[in-house]
């Protein structure tokens, strides 16, 4: 069995679909995007890539889509057909049991929009985005829309007390040695878990931004970031936390940008967060610098998986951002200089504004004298 067959068979597990459907943040965001922006779907031809049970296709049909091609490669397509019939949308939604790469539409028809929930853990796990971009190149009109249209991966250093803290006092005993070896055994595979926002040790940084309307499949092969930051509070540096945001090309009725976020600061989703655990924790104080390089590379043997590699760097040898929040002497001096220049600029602006006000008053006085 090749990797693609194994992947599609995994999606015949109904528990996976139940988990996705019951993910309120995920499902309600897609429904809100569609309901609040009906002009993109009403009387339009839509393609749903990897439709699963067909929930997104149903949402599109409910707001008046003219035609929905619901493409699903796994055998869950047979259940999707029953669900479409159950909702009386057989004339609107056509479930196509096929890989989207093999689909041929009647008369080489082009679609007005492509919608898909393709995201995996840390965004790219499972590699389904490849199929969405292939569908875009093959079926989307030149002025067509992608839902979502862009996505970004974020990284932040973190603590994971939920994994290790309990072992310090476990049923009246200290099991810290066990926790140490447990940590060492976990650093070969990312942990999928919910990270609390208070366990983030520093501001997050964007690792990559993906434009679904323009990027090529080859653009997804590798991403890398080298970053240094100052710790924002005292804590145990135990790993790097990864999450993603997806942006839709619309504004919702409450006048907010339509964003599906899996951040620790957002409501929990079934994706949770991905944590790359360090083999040894570091006790850090506020302002202490952290430097790391994170490489995300597509696996050569299985294109649906990525290899994540973290290198801990010496903050002394890495270029810092300006201004930097760490407490290294050079960063403190640069930050003070930047603040001084900003204050000087504000003072200069205020002086010019005061001079302008004085000139305006003199002009008013001259006008009053002339009138007199």
Task: Explain this structure.
The chain has 372 residues and is of the alpha/beta class. 31% of the residues lie in helices and 29% in strands. It has helices at residues 3-10, 14-21, 24-36, 55-62, 76-86, 129-139, 161-164, 176-186, 329-371, and strands spanning 45-49, 67-72, 93-97, 111-115, 140-147, 150-158, 191-193, 205-211, 222-230, 235-251, 257-261, 273-284, 289-298, 306-312. Strands 6, 7, 8, 10, 11 and 12 form a six-stranded antiparallel β-sheet that branches. The protein has a five-stranded parallel β-sheet with strand order 3-2-1-4-5, with helices on both faces. Helix 4 (55-62) links the parallel strand 1 and strand 2 (67-72). It comes from Parnassius apollo.
Secondary-structure map with pairings?
Blueprint: H1 3-10, H2 14-21, H3 24-36, E1 45-49, H4 55-62, E2 67-72, H5 76-86, E3 93-97, E4 111-115, H6 129-139, E5 140-147, E6 150-158, H7 161-164, H8 176-186, E7 191-193, E8 205-211, E9 222-230, E10 235-251, E11 257-261, E12 273-284, E13 289-298, E14 306-312, H9 329-371
Parallel strand pairs: 1-2, 1-4, 2-3, 4-5
Antiparallel strand pairs: 6-8, 6-10, 7-12, 9-13, 10-11, 10-12, 13-14
Helix pairs in contact: 3-4
Radius of gyration (Å) = 27 Å
Q: How far is the first residue's CA from the last residue's CA?
A: 98 Å
Number of helices: 9
Structural class computed from helices and strand pairing: alpha/beta
The biggest beta sheet is recorded as: 6 strands, antiparallel
Mean pLDDT: 89
Total strand count, please? Answer: 14
Helix content: 25-40%
The SSE string, one letter per element, is: HHHEHEHEEHEEHHEEEEEEEEH
Enzyme class: transferase
Organism: Parnassius apollo
GO molecular function, one term: protein-arginine omega-N monomethyltransferase activity
Keywords: Methyltransferase, S-adenosyl-L-methionine, Transferase
């Amino acid at each position: 069995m090749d990797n693609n067959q194994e992947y599609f068979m995994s999606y015949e597990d109904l528990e996976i679909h139940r988990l996705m459907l019951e993910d309120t943040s995920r499902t309600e965001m897609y429904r809100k995007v569609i309901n609040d922006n009906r002009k993109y779907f009403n009387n339009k031809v839509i393609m749903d890539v990897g439709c699963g049970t067909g929930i997104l296709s149903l949402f599109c049909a409910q707001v008046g889509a003219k035609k929905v091609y619901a493409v699903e490669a796994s055998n869950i397509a047979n259940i999707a057909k029953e669900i479409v019939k159950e909702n009386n949308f057989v004339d609107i939604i056509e479930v196509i049991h096929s890989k989207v790469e093999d689909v041929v539409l009647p008369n080489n028809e082009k679609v007005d929009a492509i919608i898909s929930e393709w995201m995996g853990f840390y965004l790219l796990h499972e590699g389904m985005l490849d199929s969405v971009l292939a569908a875009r190149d093959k079926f989307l009109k030149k002025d067509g829309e992608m839902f979502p249209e862009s996505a970004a991966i974020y990284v932040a250093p973190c603590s994971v007390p939920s994994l290790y803290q309990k072992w310090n006092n476990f049923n009246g005993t200290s099991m810290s040695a066990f926790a140490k070896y447990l940590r060492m055994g976990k650093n070969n595979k990312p942990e999928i878990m919910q990270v609390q926002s208070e366990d983030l040790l520093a501001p997050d940084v964007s690792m990559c931004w993906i434009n679904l309307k323009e990027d090529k499949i080859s653009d997804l092969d590798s991403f890398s970031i080298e970053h240094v930051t100052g710790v924002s509070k005292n804590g145990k540096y135990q790993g790097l936390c990864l999450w993603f945001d997806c942006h839709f090309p619309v504004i919702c009725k409450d006048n907010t940008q339509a964003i599906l976020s899996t951040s620790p600061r957002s409501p929990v989703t079934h994706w949770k967060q991905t944590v790359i655990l360090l083999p040894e924790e570091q006790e850090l104080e506020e302002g202490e610098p952290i430097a790391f390089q994170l490489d995300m590379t597509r696996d050569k043997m299985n294109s649906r998986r990525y290899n994540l590699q973290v290198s801990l760097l010496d903050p002394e040898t890495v270029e810092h951002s300006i201004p930097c929040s760490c407490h290294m002497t050079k960063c403190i001096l640069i930050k003070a200089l930047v603040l001084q220049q900003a204050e000087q600029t504000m003072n200069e602006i205020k002086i010019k504004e005061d001079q302008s006000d004085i000139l305006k008053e003199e002009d008013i006085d001259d006008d009053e004298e002339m009138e007199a």
